[in-house]
Amino acid sequence: MRAFAKAACGRVLASLLVVVSGGCASYRPLPLASHPDLAPRVEDLQGADGVHAPYDEAAVLRLVWINNPTLAAARDQRGIAQAEVLDASILPNPSVQANLGFLVSGAGDVPAWSAGFAQSLQGLVARGARRDEARASASSTDAQLLWESWVALSRARQLVVDIVDGERRLALQEASAERLASRAASLRTAVARGDEASGAASAVFVAASDARTACDDARHTLRAQRGELAGMMRLSPDAPLPLAPLPPLPPFDVAQAESTIASMGEHRPDLAALRFGYAAQEARLRGAILSRFAPLSIGMNASRDSSKVLNIGPAVSFDLPLFDRQQGKIAMAEATRQQLHDEYTARIDAAAADARVLLASIVVNEVAAREVTDTAPLDAASRAFARGDIDASTYGDLSVATLGQVANDVTRDLYRREQRIALDALTGAGLPDSLPPRMNP
């Protein structure tokens, strides 16, 4: 009898081990980095094989897209969302129960046993809703990742413009500062000789000092912008990153901008993410309603007592929904759905209003940009100064004024480019007109 019991226990344990080991996954360690891993050169970055210095905007965006560490971490969320879709698609496991009773005393010939098999139908009823919710949530994650990528690339575009135009403006500021410094030095000599009043020369001294300060501030700003751009592509801040000149700005198409604002819901991935989130909440509400029905399990039970009487037949179990009918979960799901509905409406209205305000400002600046500083008088003054027709003071004042106006033109060009990038970022212009098929809500 004991031998039979031990053999039976051994078979049961062996069966359990086989079932459990079939669902096990192997473990592999994933150690963390112990030190920063910034690339010392652009050539060491991933995707750098197809780009060449000086790097234009497209090349910079490619390097940022491939190497940006924040985007890489965000892409990991997609794997989590896909795992949730897989989890929601798996059928619920059936349950098995078994009992063995050894004959200790009394009438009987053999040990008693019982076994049962059951499958929950509630999980099958709600499976479709859970799967729809997981798929919509995964699509929302995809859209949100696309939006984060778009925001990062828009920032990279802005940094490229700020750096290239900023260096142009710095060159003009330095030229103007050199002329002011030369003029101030001449005035100091004249004041020391008594040929010039110190009060009349003080304005030039202040302007020269302000010009030096402006140049220093511009260098610090450019250094910070270059460091930020390098960090976005996992590049060392000290690594050389030569940038190509910016192409001329094409004429601004107001009608196209109006059309883009009108179709913003198709272009902005964050709005698509909200729509997918709303679809997921709809599925969650539907699942909560389905779950209010009584949990039902059906199966089969078999048993044998110690006198060898064998019984076998169907088994049904369910809960009586007397108190808990999922009222709380349904109420929370409905309230959350209403919140998401209102949030989407507010978001798209605010985005459209912001875009129209920016568009109006762009139109004003585009009209003002038609006036460009004429440098011909400065060229004529240079020739006159070479001939001795004007003195150094007159030529210096004229050149400083002209260089200042040209620097203002560069600043205005920079502002126009930044506004266009901001409008593209705000409306999602430049992204595909439609999301991938699986991401369509």
What does this structure look like?
- The chain has 441 residues and is α+β, with helices and mostly antiparallel strands.
- 65% of the residues lie in helices and 8% in strands.
- The protein contains eleven helices and four strands; from the N terminus they run H-H-H-E-E-H-H-H-H-H-E-E-H-H-H.
- It has helices at residues 2-22, 57-67, 69-89, 122-193, 198-232, 254-262, 264-267, 269-290, 327-368, 376-387, 392-427, and strands at residues 95-101, 112-120, 296-304, 310-318.
- A four-stranded antiparallel beta sheet has the order 1-2-3-4.
- Helix 4 packs antiparallel against helix 11 and helix 10 runs antiparallel to helix 11.
- The longest helix has 72 residues, at 122-193.
- The model is unreliable at 1-23 and 433-441 (pLDDT under 50).
In short:
The protein is of the alpha+beta class.
